[in-house]
Design brief:
Number of domains: 1
Structural class: alpha+beta
Helix content: 55-70%
Largest sheet: 4 strands, antiparallel
Distance between the termini: 48 Å
Strand order of the largest sheet: 2-1-3-4
Oligomer: single chain
Radius of gyration: 17 Å
Strand content: 5-15%
Shape: globular
Number of strands: 4
């Protein structure tokens, strides 16, 4: 009986831990939000362009939704599951910074790599 109780405690603890990314991942995701918000870039989703603050607010809602379901454990998960494409239409998100336009996934991944290399 003690083994069963211990197993149940371990499972519930693991499930609760799975719902939140590690502190390093949370800091990286927070950095990506700040990077987007602080940019002068526009964000394309579902047929229209949006300012960086509006885009960040939209991605925050998606991020919260994914967190509630334990689906984000890293910055890469955040990029792939929230910041790359519309979950409604499946269309890729785009980022326009001046004359340059890029898919949002590579744009966020490049900043994540730059951020990680500067943190070393």
């Amino acid at each position: 009986m003690r083994i069963l109780i211990a197993a149940l405690i371990l499972l519930s603890t693991a499930a609760a831990a799975a719902g939140q990314p590690a502190p390093v991942a949370r800091a990286e995701i927070s950095h990506l939000f700040g990077y987007l918000e602080g940019s002068t870039c526009e964000f394309y989703r579902n047929g229209s362009w949006h300012g960086s603050r509006e885009a960040a607010a939209h991605l925050r809602r998606k991020y919260e939704y994914l967190l509630e379901r334990g689906l984000v454990s890293s910055a890469e998960d955040f990029i792939e599951r929230a910041a790359t494409q519309s979950s409604v239409s499946g269309r890729p998100y785009r980022v326009r910074c001046g004359a340059r336009t890029a898919d949002s996934g590579p744009w966020f991944r490049a900043e994540l790599l730059r951020h990680r290399s500067s943190a070393k």
